[in-house]
């Protein structure tokens, strides 16, 4: 087996080992382990690593321990509330929590408490999950990063805007953390921190109570295993529903079975030209390995429908930035009026452009988005899923730049489910492979992801 496809796994098995939760549940039931003991192991890792990683904004250890004790009692009685009963979870600091401030990465909201839980937080609490704390987000969930560092190399960015969530899972502090994605805020940091990232179908998990509500904003999960990513997402949707007007996440309350896809479309998007020859070669070798297992691999060079999709999706990043900028310019303008330093210069510069976008331009952008989605739907009968990279390379050095979202934006503009799988390594750091499915076929995508991971001998 090629070392570039497996080396990052062995690295994480040392200091940066990611946590899993589902495989501990039998021990909880038999009494050889407990949710409280599991939580304490998480806290010990946080104590050891948080000073350098800085993944969390705030924590409520008193409530977390009390909730873990209650979960321990339920397991002792053989009556857990759900598959995530006792699971410690980090919450991206865009979501309201009744017991902790919601600061959204901005000094304007420092210490601001709403005294209520976002829908997903309330739903997870009802499912027995333990809300351990709030994780760092970039300013307003956009571009200006917080202090979080990549746990695999603290001189590098963890990505953004779900930086704290990605780093907390990558550092083994929690098995699961909530993230969001509008452009590339979940898939990209999953790649950089070497964890499993799941961006579901748009609206599949209720995001009510989040700071922003943009037309591409979707709630998803960072996790130490595919199984934990699925059960956390499924239970969150089961207890909190989907976004208003959306049917929620389809599937079953157990891990998905491995499913070999009939055909995958290898897509390049506008990101391909930004990749180094080394990254391109690694990706091609991985795709070749999948093809050798009997999966039909098609691409833009042999399928006219794939070529049409590739051409349509090339401007996805520019379209997305303008759509979201237009939608968010009103609250940002209000914040800007609070003073010259109320918002970062990064956001302020972008805001000046967004203010110039007219209503008719916005309507045209929405039409372009719909055309891209239509091109994607045309692939449904012949292509089981799309496969591409999660990022252009390893996490960049430094903390000011969170990395290029060019690969991650594809699933965002489609509103389709995507999963980042930690299968490659470049520059001694992880690089994710992304698979993209079709709306409301999230469970099917997990089955494909499990099969892909299995052929590379990875624990899922």
UniProtKB/TrEMBL annotation:
Q: Which InterPro entries does its entry note?
A: Amidase, Amidase_dom
Residue ranges spanning the membrane: these are: none
Amidase domain span: 39-445
Task: Give the protein's recorded name.
Answer: Amidase
Q: Give the originating organism.
A: Marinobacter salexigens
Cleaved signal peptide residues: none
């Amino acid at each position: 087996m090629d070392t570039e496809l497996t080396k990052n796994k062995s690295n994480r098995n040392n200091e940066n080992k990611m946590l899993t939760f589902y495989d501990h549940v039998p021990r909880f039931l038999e009494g050889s382990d407990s949710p409280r003991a599991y939580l304490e192991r998480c806290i010990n890792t946080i104590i050891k690593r948080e000073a350098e990683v800085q993944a969390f904004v705030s924590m409520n250890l008193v409530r977390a321990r009390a909730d873990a004790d209650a979960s321990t009692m339920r397991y002792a009685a053989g009556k857990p509330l759900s598959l995530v009963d006792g699971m410690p979870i980090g919450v991206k600091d865009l979501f309201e929590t009744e017991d902790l401030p919601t600061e959204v990465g901005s000094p304007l909201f420092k210490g601001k408490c709403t005294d209520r839980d976002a829908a997903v937080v309330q739903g997870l609490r009802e499912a027995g999950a333990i809300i351990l704390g709030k994780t760092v987000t970039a300013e307003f969930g956009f571009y200006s990063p917080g202090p979080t560092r990549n746990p695999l190399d603290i001189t590098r960015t963890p990505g953004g805007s779900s930086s704290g969530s990605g780093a907390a899972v990558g550092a083994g502090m929690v098995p699961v953390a909530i993230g969001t994605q509008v452009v590339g805020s979940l898939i990209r940091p999953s790649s950089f921190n070497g964890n499993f990232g799941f961006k579901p179908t748009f609206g599949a998990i209720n995001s009510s109570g989040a700071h922003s509500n943009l037309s591409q904003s979707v709630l998803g999960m960072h996790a130490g295993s595919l199984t934990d990513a699925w059960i956390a997402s499924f239970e969150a949707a089961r207890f909190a529903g989907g976004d208003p007007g959306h049917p929620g996440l389809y599937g079953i309350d157990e891990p998905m079975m491995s499913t070999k896809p009939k055909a995958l479309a290898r897509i390049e998007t506008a990101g391909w030209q930004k990749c180094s020859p080394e990254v391109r070669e690694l990706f091609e070798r991985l795709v070749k390995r999948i093809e050798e297992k009997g999966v039909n691999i098609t691409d833009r060079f042999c399928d006219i429908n794939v070529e049409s999709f590739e051409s349509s999706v090339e401007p996805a990043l520019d379209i997305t930035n303008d759509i979201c900028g237009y939608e968010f310019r009103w609250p940002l303008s209000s914040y800007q009026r609070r003073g010259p330093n109320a918002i970062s210069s990064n956001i302020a510069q972008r805001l000046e452009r967004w203010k110039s976008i007219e209503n008719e331009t916005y309507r045209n952008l929405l039409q372009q988005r719909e055309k891209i989605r239509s091109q994607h739907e045309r692939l449904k009968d012949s292509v089981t899923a799309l496969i591409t990279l999660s990022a252009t390379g390893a996490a960049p050095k430094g903390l000011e730049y969170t990395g290029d979202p060019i690969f991650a934006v594809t699933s965002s503009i489609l509103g389709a489910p995507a999963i980042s799988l930690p299968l490659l390594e470049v520059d001694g750091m992880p690089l994710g492979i992304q698979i993209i499915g079709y709306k409301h076929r999230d469970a099917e995508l997990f089955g494909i992801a499990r099969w892909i991971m299995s052929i590379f001998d990875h624990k899922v």
